[in-house]
Each structure stands twice: as structure tokens, then as C-alpha cells.
Write a structure and sequence with these properties.
Elements lengths: L5 H9 L11 E4 L2 E4 L2 H14 L14 E3 L27 E3 L3 H7 L11 E4 L7 H16 L3 E3 L12 E5 L6 H4 L2 E3 L2 E3 L11 E5 L7 E3 L4 E3 L1 H7 L4 E5 L7 H14 L4 H15 L3 H4 L2 E5 L8
Parallel strand pairs: 3-4, 5-6, 5-7, 7-10, 10-13
Antiparallel strand pairs: 1-2, 8-9, 11-12, 13-14
Length: 301
């Protein structure tokens, strides 16, 4: 990374730049609400690129996929926002995954494959009365039922989700990597082990749950993704910043279609993000969901 500038990077981290992206598909203009145009989304993208010039990574045009392990000092940089030497987002053209550890990735890359008839569960506590979660549920309910998900709408679970693919829907704060608490309509869940059991792929539709925090004095990185990879998950997918509730409507069906067709989870995430890009061509939307863990994870042949 020939243009890397640690001072600029730290300034952005201290300003919460990477966790402050917000997505809107409409704007109030002269008293009238109108949809944001593709040209405005493009301008937003160019503004982000201008702030991230220092993150350019020279890679060959022949590269089909990028798997990275980030040094602790740059753990707070979202890997979906890395640029290539042409000042373009790498993750817009090829899958980009944070495999966390080279040694771990090499040991697990071809193991623990999904069974052909894999199980699926989702916790989305709409019975709490949370408006945003109810809106999210209405957007993905058809996909969930068509894909035979076990759906749990209670605010509290009797048993944690323990399917091959588990999805968690709730709210999270910018400090979620440290406090590791989710909430819904004023109620907080402090013990995540009470809702998240064993599984293979874990998907968080929880704001900021893909973010990471560096604890320099403890020489450690705190994150939800690292916690559940350590707990046995092969892959964790989570938003680095605030996840708009409209995004899973476009993302989830494409992700499941790719997994069902035998694609690696890295390609499934890439295709799902591209589907969001077709609708909302701004990094605040399409680059939000990040992949951590075994990029090669897929259904057994």
C-alpha cells in the first residue's frame, strides 16, 4: 500500500468516519420529497474515494478474489472500502473477505462444509413492538418463508438459534464491538449466547456489528465477528456501519440463491452486495455488509 497514510487514517477513525456512513434513498428538496438520483449517489461515492486515496492497493486485473488479514493497527478500516490503483473500490468488482488469520484460514478452508439440506433460523423480535424491525420483517418475510426459515419473533428466546445459517436482527450502537449488547424497543439483550448458539454462517442485520475496536494496551481487537468465529462459526457477515432496513430486501434473496447454487460464501456476499448496488449505487448502501472468516465456505458437493 504505497500511499498509506497512518496519520490520515487515525484522524478518520478518531472522527468515527467509518461508522458514520448513512444511507438515504430520498431527500427533501424545496419542500418536496424526491428520490436521490444516480448522479447524486455517484457524487457521494467520489467524495468517499477522495477521503480514502491513501488506501489504494495495487492488484492485478487478473485477480478473481481478495482475501486479507489486517494488522491490528488498521483493524478499524472497513475492507469493503479498499481502493485499487485505479481509484475504484475493489469490492465492487471482486469478492473481498477478511479471513482474520492466515493459519486459521488454511486449516478451515476446505472443512466443515454446509450440508445440502442445511437448516436456517432467524431471530427478529417484532413482538417487542419495534417499528424498524417490523418494517424489516415485512421486507424479507416472503424470502424467509420461501426459504423455509425457522422464524422467532419473541423478544426473548427459550433456546439460542442453532441452525446451519443463523440471522440476528436487532439494534446496535457504535460501541457494540466493546459492549456487545443488542436492543429492541428499549429492551436490551446483554447475553448474546442466549440468542446465538452453534452454527456455520452467522448473519447480523445489526448496525455496526461488523466494526472492530483496537485495544492497544491489551494488544487485542474487540469485535462481535471475532467472538463468534472463535466460538466455531466458519463465516460471519455483518454491517460495519448503520444498516438501512431496506437493504436486506435486496441482499438476502441474492445471497441465498448463490449459496444454494454452490457458490463460496465470498461470492454469495459479493453478488448480494452487487444486487444492492444495482438499486442504490452508493458505498453507504452496497458496501455495508462485510464478510469475515472462511471465504471458501459453501455447500458440500
Amino acid at each position: 500500500m504505497e500511499k498509506w497514510d497512518y496519520t490520515t487514517y487515525k484522524k478518520l477513525v478518531n472522527e468515527d468516519y467509518f461508522t458514520s456512513f448513512t444511507f438515504e434513498d430520498s431527500v427533501k428538496d424545496k419542500g418536496v420529497v424526491r428520490l436521490i438520483s444516480p448522479e447524486e449517489f455517484r457524487e457521494e461515492e467520489l467524495n468517499i474515494i477522495s477521503n480514502l486515496e491513501f488506501s489504494q492497493l495495487s492488484i492485478s486485473d487478473e485477480v478473481d478474489e481478495l482475501c486479507i488479514v489486517k494488522d491490528m493497527d488498521i483493524s478499524s478500516f472497513p475492507h469493503n472500502l479498499l481502493l485499487n490503483q485505479k481509484r475504484e473500490f475493489i469490492a465492487k468488482d471482486i469478492p473481498v473477505s477478511n479471513v482474520l488469520s492466515t493459519e486459521w484460514f488454511m486449516k478451515t478452508a476446505e472443512s466443515n462444509l454446509l450440508p445440502k439440506e442445511y437448516s436456517k433460523s432467524i431471530w427478529i423480535p417484532t413482538e417487542s413492538g419495534d417499528y424498524a424491525l417490523n418494517y424489516l420483517y415485512s421486507n424479507i418475510e416472503e424470502t424467509l418463508k420461501d426459504s423455509s426459515f425457522q422464524i422467532f419473533n419473541d423478544a426473548e428466546l427459550q433456546n439460542p438459534l442453532s441452525s446451519d445459517i443463523n440471522i440476528i436482527c436487532s439494534h446496535g450502537g457504535k460501541n457494540i464491538s466493546e459492549i456487545q449488547i443488542v436492543s429492541q424497543e428499549g429492551n436490551s439483550t446483554y447475553n448474546l449466547d442466549s440468542i446465538i448458539g452453534t452454527g456455520s454462517i452467522l448473519i447480523f442485520f445489526v448496525c455496526y456489528s461488523g466494526s472492530m475496536k483496537t485495544e492497544f494496551f491489551r494488544n487485542n481487537i474487540t469485535s462481535l465477528t471475532k467472538r463468534f468465529i472463535s466460538n466455531g462459526y466458519d463465516a460471519v457477515i455483518a454491517p460495519f456501519w448503520a444498516l438501512d432496513v431496506t437493504i436486506p430486501h435486496y441482499w438476502l434473496p441474492e445471497f441465498l440463491n448463490e449459496i444454494n447454487s454452490g457458490s463460496h460464501v465470498s461470492k454469495a456476499v459479493f453478488k448480494a452486495n452487487r444486487k444492492v448496488y444495482e438499486r442504490y449505487p452508493t458505498p453507504a448502501a452496497w458496501a455495508c455488509l462485510h464478510l469475515y472468516g472462511n471465504a471458501n465456505h459453501k455447500i458440500i458437493d
